[in-house]
Write a structure and sequence with these properties.
It is built from 15 helices and 13 strands. It is α+β, with helices and mostly antiparallel strands. A four-stranded antiparallel β-sheet has the order 1-4-3-2, with helices on both faces. A four-stranded antiparallel β-sheet has the order 5-8-7-6, sandwiched between helices. A three-stranded mixed β-sheet has the order 10-12-13. Helix 11 packs antiparallel against helix 12 and helix 13 packs parallel to helix 14. The longest helix is centred in the middle third of the chain and has 51 residues. The N and C termini lie far apart (136 Å).
Length: 471
């Protein structure tokens, strides 16, 4: 008869207590199917979690081979045997795949198989832990399907360039609208920095980086400006840049939506120009009314002065020096009448009288007067087409236009210079931007004036058609 020592008794008690606690723990786990397999893969133990997930009570499954849980296609491919072999060789197998419940329904399982060894490192079997991931997989599949639908939607958009940037501004996605707007294929642009879409002057002043900073700080940034296509052409773009954050709130990149609004901008610019033209016409109309009133009163005043001079002349002796004074008065009145005619023409109270005119003859007849007006320090050069066609124009207005152009040129050449008058026949096609023509295409006569003077600033150039404007 042998009697155990107290230490042996205590050790056995602790072991039984530990095994009992482990058994209670496994019995309490219901979210995991935990079972033991022998070396050949036959089920040795079964916990409530295994019954809940797989549907088998312990009495129906213990002693059965674990391949019963696999779908037929996996059994045909010998996946259960290969799984045990891999777990034995590598120390652990983790995989996901379809498994079969007792009722024949399938579920998506996360499976971990680990080899179990005794103290002599002899293989005793395998521990198998299975979890039902069907709901998680369905969520992941739904998310992937949603992402795919979103990807297809973005790819289908052709009027907007929609793409993603990382935090540095590197392009990481590209849709068909982006290729259409900017000219780059995805293979050419993904991995490149988005700053290459900007004009050299904007890139040099750091505009791309500035927009990323604004979007990161405020969450969103909207701008309009010139952008550059692959072929180097420019387009006016409406751009929205939005920051993208992950769930913890960390910035992970930006979405960028660009639309080519060049046509809209051109339309708006045309409307602005048209409105400016209307404003100018209204201004000229009001000035014309004022000029007409001044011309009428001035004409009456000149008539009185000239009448007095004509009345005095018979009373003054021909040799009297006062005759020269009277002549100067009459000449001044004559110049005043020319000014009145100009004011009346501007105010549209004087009806233009167009008639057949040969422009070369008009210029040649004006040449002596032009030379005197220009002075000796300016050389007048004429290039007149001998085959010039006749035109219909108001003679006085034509002479006044040429004289005004010549005098303006003279004022721009204070020391010396050349004034070139040129005439030629021209043909205006339907692309001509000449306003006021009743027919296109048509033949016309062109007169051009060129000088070697100081020229005009942009500010002066914008006002050259304003009445009474002078420098």
């Amino acid at each position: 008869m042998s009697i155990k020592s107290p230490s042996q008794t205590d050790s056995s008690s602790h072991l039984r207590a530990s095994e009992r606690q482990l058994h209670l723990l496994l019995e309490a786990v219901t979210d995991y199917a935990i079972c033991m397999l022998d070396k050949e893969g036959y089920v040795q133990t079964w916990n409530p979690g295994a019954q809940r997930i797989k549907g088998y009570p312990a009495s129906e499954i213990i002693g059965k081979h674990f391949s019963i849980f696999y779908p037929p296609e996996d059994i045909a491919a010998k996946k259960p045997d290969r799984g045990l072999m891999q777990a034995r060789e590598t120390g652990r197998l983790e995989e996901e795949g379809w498994r079969i419940r007792k009722d024949g329904s399938r579920y998506w399982a996360n499976v971990v198989i680990s080899p179990v060894y005794d103290e002599t490192h002899t293989l005793q079997g395998f521990a198998k832990v299975t979890r039902d991931f069907t709901d998680r997989r369905n969520v992941e599949l739904a998310l992937r399907a949603s992402e795919e639908r979103l990807r297809l939607l973005v790819q289908a958009v052709k009027d907007y360039a929609i793409y993603m940037l990382d935090t540095k501004g590197t392009v990481i996605s590209w849709n068909e609208g982006a290729q259409r707007a900017k000219g780059y294929r995805a293979s050419e642009i993904v991995g490149q920095n988005f700053s290459k879409f900007y004009t050299p002057e904007d890139a040099a002043r750091g505009l791309p980086e500035e927009l990323l900073r604004k979007a990161a700080e405020h969450g969103r940034c909207e701008v309009e400006g010139w952008r550059v296509r692959k072929d180097g052409t420019r387009f006016w773009a409406d751009v929205t840049l939005s920051a993208v954050h992950d769930e913890p709130g960390t910035l992970i990149g930006f979405t960028k939506v660009t639309r080519d609004v060049t046509e809209r901008r051109q339309t708006e610019e045309a409307l602005r120009m048209k409105q400016a033209e209307i404003n100018q016409l209204q201004k000229i109309e009001s000035q014309g009314r004022l000029a007409g009133g001044i011309a009428h009163d001035f004409n009456n005043l000149l008539a009185g002065i000239l009448g007095c001079a004509e009345a005095i002349r018979p009373t003054v002796d021909a040799a009297d020096p006062a005759q020269e004074d009277l002549k100067a008065i009459e000449q001044g009145c004559e110049r005043g009448r020319i000014l009145v005619q100009q004011l009346m023409a501007f105010s549209r109270r004087q009806v233009a009288a167009p008639k057949k005119v040969h422009l070369n003859e008009v210029i040649q007849a004006m040449t002596p007067l032009l030379k005197r007006a220009l002075g000796p320090h300016i050389k007048l050069i004429l290039y007149l087409n001998p085959d010039l066609k006749d035109i219909r124009f108001d003679m006085s207005q034509l002479e006044q236009i040429i004289m005004n152009l010549a005098l303006n040129a003279r004022d721009a050449m204070p020391s010396d210079g050349r004034l070139i008058l040129r005439t030629d026949n021209v043909f205006l096609d339907d692309l001509s931007d000449v306003d006021g023509l009743s027919e296109r295409p048509c033949e016309a006569v062109e007169v051009s004036v060129q000088d070697t003077g100081t020229g005009m600033s942009k500010e002066v150039l914008s006002k050259i058609f304003e009445p009474f404007y002078t420098t």
